[in-house]
């Protein structure tokens, strides 16, 4: 598929997705959201993709929020619901993608940009990055899952303070509160993200997908039910050819060759 607002490249079994609207700091518009949704559908269907790295074009912004012109043009509540529903569909695809997604936050990640990053499995930020949910300053509030995902990640009080004030925070502060997992010099961001993605892509793909599902589903319930979910998926992993290959390779002291079945 040909895209106008994003770029997709391959590095072996790693897909690299770049939001490519640098003149507007990679701001989200509806067309970009639809292209991103289509790209993640392609990643889901392609067995050769085993990990995804997402970043923004240029060195200033990851995604600097929504296209304000589109927000201003909303005519009624149904327009607003349609708009946020597109975003929710995209972020759900990212969370449910059976392959890990690394967000390489290279600059401003504001509003929808922060919400988009929160749907990833791992977040690595450049030391120049700034994150925040400033929607309150536009007379609205986060509508792409920010009120739900951020409190689950950093706790209610910190999340409320960020959304009530609309303040931006530095990458180091995001690391301190657990909003990102690693901060690196900006010049090292993509190398760091790709090195991690290549490592992840080298692992058993079915076990990787089941690990992601077990964690994501288990965290939304109590411990007893979470353990049941884990056990069910572990039983599936135990029936795969990759389990036979992995245990055989370990005993034979050789590198495993994963089949994805």
Task: Describe the structure in your own words.
This protein is of the alpha/beta class and 261 residues long. It folds into 2 domains: 6-201, Alpha-Beta Complex (2-enoyl-CoA Hydratase, Chain A, domain 1), CATH 3.90.226.10; 205-252, Lyase 2-enoyl-coa Hydratase, Chain  A, domain 2, CATH 1.10.12. 49% of the residues lie in helices and 16% in strands. The model has no long low-confidence stretch (mean pLDDT 95).
Task: Detail the topology: elements first, then pairings.
Elements (H helix, E strand, L loop, with lengths): L5 E6 L2 E6 L10 H16 L5 E6 L4 E3 L4 H5 L4 H20 L4 E5 L2 E3 L1 H7 L3 E5 L3 E3 L13 H9 L1 H10 L2 E3 H7 L4 E3 L4 H13 L3 H14 L4 H16 L2 H12 L9
Helix pairs in contact: 1-3, 5-6, 9-10
Q: Which descriptor suits the 3D outline?
A: globular
Mean pLDDT across the residues is 95
CATH topology of the largest domain: 2-enoyl-CoA Hydratase, Chain A, domain 1
Radius of gyration: 19 Å
- Proper CATH architecture of the largest domain: Alpha-Beta Complex
Computed structural class: alpha/beta
- Largest beta sheet, briefly? 6 strands, mixed
What is the helix/strand order?
Answer: EEHEEHHEEHEEHHEHEHHHH
- The helix tally amounts to 11
CATH superfamily of the largest domain: 2-enoyl-CoA Hydratase, Chain A, domain 1
> Could you say how many structural domains there are in total?
2
How far the N terminus sits from the C terminus, by CA atoms, comes to 27 Å
What is the helix fraction of residues, given as a range? 40-55%
Query: Uncertain runs with pLDDT below 50, 5 residues or more?
Result: none
Number of strands: 10
Q: Give the class-level CATH name of the largest domain.
A: Alpha Beta
Q: Beta-strand percentage?
A: 15-25%
Strand order of the largest sheet: 1-2-3-5-7-10
């Amino acid at each position: 598929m040909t895209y106008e607002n994003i770029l997709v490249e391959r590095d072996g079994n790693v897909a690299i997705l770049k939001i490519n609207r640098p003149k507007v700091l990679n701001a989200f518009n509806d067309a970009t959201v639809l292209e991103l949704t289509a790209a993640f559908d392609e990643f889901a269907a392609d067995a050769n993709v085993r990990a995804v790295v997402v970043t923004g074009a240029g060195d200033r912004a990851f995604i600097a929020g929504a296209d304000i012109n589109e927000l201003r043009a909303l005519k009624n509540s149904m327009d607003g619901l349609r708009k946020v529903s597109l975003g929710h569909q995209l972020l759900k695809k990212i969370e449910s993608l059976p392959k890990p997604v690394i967000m390489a936050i290279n600059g401003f990640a504001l509003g929808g940009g922060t919400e988009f990053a929160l749907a990833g499995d791992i977040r690595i930020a450049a030391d120049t990055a700034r994150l925040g949910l400033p929607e309150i300053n536009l007379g609205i509030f986060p509508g792409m899952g920010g009120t739900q995902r951020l409190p689950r990640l950093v706790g209610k009080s910190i999340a409320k303070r960020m959304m009530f004030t609309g303040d931006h925070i530095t990458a180091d502060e995001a690391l301190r509160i657990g909003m990102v997992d690693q901060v690196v010099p900006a010049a090292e961001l993509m190398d760091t993200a790709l090195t991690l993605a290549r490592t992840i892509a080298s692992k058993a793909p079915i076990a990787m997908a089941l690990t992601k599902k077990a964690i994501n589903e288990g965290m939304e319930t109590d411990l007893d039910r979470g353990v049941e979910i884990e056990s069910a998926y572990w039983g599936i992993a135990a029936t795969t050819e990759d389990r036979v290959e992995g245990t055989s390779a370990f005993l034979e002291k050789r590198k495993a060759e994963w089949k994805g079945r």
